[in-house]
Amino acid sequence: MPGRHRRPLEERATYREVFAVGEFRALWLASALSYAGDQLAQVALAVLVFRMTDSPLLTALTYALTYIPPVVGGPLLAGLADLFPRRSVMVVCDLLRTGLVTLMALRADDLVTLCVLVFLTVLLGAPFTAARAALLPDILDGDKYVAGSAINNITHQATQMLGFLAGGALVMAVGTERALAIDAATFGVSAVILLVGVRRRGGADRSGDERVSLWRNTRAGARLVFGDPTLRSLVAFAWLCSFYVIPEGLAAPYAATFDDSPVTVGLLMSAMPTGMVLGAFVFSRFVRPSNRLRSMGWMAMLACAPLIGSGLQPPLWAVVALWALSGVGSAYQLAANAAFVAAVPPSGRGQAFGLAQSGILAGQGLGILLGGFAAEVLGPEAVVALAGVAGLSVATMLTLSWTQIRGDVISSMVTTEPVEERVPA
């Protein structure tokens, strides 16, 4: 006789199941190319500016320009992902960035022009990232989304790890201008892959409201995110990275305390991404969804605590190990991201993701900028240690508040669904 078996949604999706989805493969490949080019460009910019100015402050300022633009226009432009077809938003952004980065390669000797072009290029990343984040739940559902997010994070961190390591050697081999030209090419190829591999979907359903503007959409997204205690807490965890990103922004002056090699700069920049690759893999493949949420606070504290050891001025291998351990802890972002998706309605997904991502980038940029100012006086080792202390303090407070609400979040995410199954009579 027929019966009903209840299957827990705690079941974890495999990476093979995710890669079986053709649209995800296209989205992943396009993102991987852009990621790789970006890491190469960041090494080129760090080396170029530090050699031009010999100033940790100006180096950090230029690096911070890869994060600060969202303060100005990120939340506003992210709303484009809810007003227009998301694939189209991504393709247009890729094409515009191809042109801007090409100009960067041609004007690499002009610091002011270079900074303006960096600003505009990163500004276009806000609607691109919001559209991609909003599109992914349409392509993958359930724990496939979590596994897909993990794959994207692992890919991002792996390309950072390899891009920073190989980037230092490549910059030495081909020069900063050609390295920037390679970055421009990755954006162009990404646009082609998106056009061919991702099907066109309409914009988000606005329930017949044809007059929604970017400004109104931005205000609605802010009310959605900050008006809900759970979303506020999850966004605060996401923005915690403003503290543990500071070492990356100081990698060039930090490397100068050992030697003046671009390879050392790339080695330091790759340490955290290496740890994140390991942490994201273990966290997504071997930890149940409910346990990810329960351990999120402790992982967030782990993302900050190892940086304190930099204040002891350890040798290079120990600095790399400490920064890699910080990267392992940062894998908590997977759990925060999945919970955020579950709590946001699809019609406002682009704006909500864009607001969260813009805050992440803005906080990182401001953190790096402040770190550059402080490094002029205290030195990079002390500043990294202070970033660890401040981040650990904030992470501890967030963990205490998260403990009070995580039970409701877990019960809303980890439910059961009825599945028809024939059992023996």
UniProtKB/TrEMBL annotation:
<feature type="transmembrane region" description="Helical">
    <location>
        <begin position="26"/>
        <end position="50"/>
    </location>
</feature>
<feature type="transmembrane region" description="Helical">
    <location>
        <begin position="382"/>
        <end position="403"/>
    </location>
</feature>
<keyword id="KW-0812">Transmembrane</keyword>
<feature type="domain" description="Major facilitator superfamily (MFS) profile">
    <location>
        <begin position="228"/>
        <end position="425"/>
    </location>
</feature>
<keyword id="KW-1003">Cell membrane</keyword>
<protein>
    <submittedName>
        <fullName>MFS transporter</fullName>
    </submittedName>
</protein>
<feature type="transmembrane region" description="Helical">
    <location>
        <begin position="352"/>
        <end position="370"/>
    </location>
</feature>
<feature type="transmembrane region" description="Helical">
    <location>
        <begin position="262"/>
        <end position="283"/>
    </location>
</feature>
<dbReference type="GO" id="GO:0022857">
    <property type="term" value="F:transmembrane transporter activity"/>
</dbReference>
<feature type="transmembrane region" description="Helical">
    <location>
        <begin position="111"/>
        <end position="135"/>
    </location>
</feature>
<feature type="transmembrane region" description="Helical">
    <location>
        <begin position="57"/>
        <end position="81"/>
    </location>
</feature>
<feature type="transmembrane region" description="Helical">
    <location>
        <begin position="234"/>
        <end position="256"/>
    </location>
</feature>
<dbReference type="GO" id="GO:0005886">
    <property type="term" value="C:plasma membrane"/>
</dbReference>
<dbReference type="InterPro" id="IPR011701">
    <property type="entry name" value="MFS"/>
</dbReference>
<keyword id="KW-1133">Transmembrane helix</keyword>
<dbReference type="Pfam" id="PF07690">
    <property type="entry name" value="MFS_1"/>
</dbReference>
<keyword id="KW-0472">Membrane</keyword>
<dbReference type="InterPro" id="IPR020846">
    <property type="entry name" value="MFS_dom"/>
</dbReference>
<feature type="transmembrane region" description="Helical">
    <location>
        <begin position="295"/>
        <end position="312"/>
    </location>
</feature>
<feature type="transmembrane region" description="Helical">
    <location>
        <begin position="179"/>
        <end position="198"/>
    </location>
</feature>
<dbReference type="InterPro" id="IPR036259">
    <property type="entry name" value="MFS_trans_sf"/>
</dbReference>
